[in-house]
Amino acid sequence: MKAWRVAELGEPRDVLTLLDVPDPEPAGTRIVVRVLASPANFPDVLMCRGLYQIKPELPFTPGVELCGEVVAVGPGVTRFAVGDRVIGGTVLPHGGFAEYAVLDEAVTFPAPSSLDDAQAGSLYIGYQTGWFALHRRAALQPGETLLVHAAAGGVGTAAIQLGKAAGARVIGVVGGPEKAAVARELGADVVVDRHAEDFVTVVKDVTGGRGADVVFDPVGGDTYARSTKCIAFEGRIVIIGFAGGEIQSAALNHALIKNYSIVGLHWGLYNTRAPQLVAECHTELTALADAGRIGPLVSERLPLADVGDAVQRLADGTTVGRVSYVAEV
């Protein structure tokens, strides 16, 4: 089969190579799928660089989530059969940027019939992350104000839709007019182009000085520091990641004085610590998708040969929404 492989660490453009490799085989509770669609995620970039918390043994195939058709199952698999259309997180080194990949039954779920392959493939990590961040960690309530950073990216677009579905007023922060248009299309009530406006000033203006009740921050660094200047009384800042490249230190005296919470989310831990919650979340996300209240924005659908370029463009911050490899473009 054809697969993108990383044999040494570095920038995606330098280390991703499309090769012919053996097809994977199922074992235990593992499932082999024909990849129907697999989106690029920022963890794919970080793994190419060797900077992600998960460091697969070299060589490996990136692509941390997918939608696929089951073609073989291990002897321990009981919930899925050949021909099933499924989504889930891949078992590295057999990631989704290939013709065939491997899933584990514990983190594999039926693909929602209301979503096409590219949308279904993009539902798992970004929307699970958004749902756990907003509901499990921040307890977002109807009528509250949600500030979403990187609102035109993969997890940001999910957070906008999930915030609106929860009845919140959503302020999206983006970089550039094209991304601003995307955030508006997804339903953000207020959109801030950070190249042209100060989001702190905008948040204070539109909330009458109160600030945002919940801040969804996958960027970190100065973005986090400035978010503390527009957080509401009893607000919650949810730390999703550090796409900006800087891991900031929190001024705990400031959190004390302003009475806000700093909440971390490592969604991957739920897969091992509380897998039943992940399954419940999938049921909720499927219901929202079936009702038309959420739907991953897939801005580009690409053949396998173009995946290397797509991952580098994601690394460079020039993509909008989700960019996905699709087997049949």
TrEMBL record:
Gene3D superfamilies cross-referenced by the UniProt entry: Medium-chain alcohol dehydrogenases, catalytic domain, NAD(P)-binding Rossmann-like Domain
Every Enoyl reductase (ER) domain range: 11-327
Source species, domain of life: Bacteria
Matching SMART domains: PKS_ER
Classification via PANTHER family: QUINONE OXIDOREDUCTASE-LIKE PROTEIN 2, SHORT-CHAIN DEHYDROGENASE/REDUCTASE
Protein name: NADPH:quinone oxidoreductase family protein
Species this protein is from: Tsukamurella soli
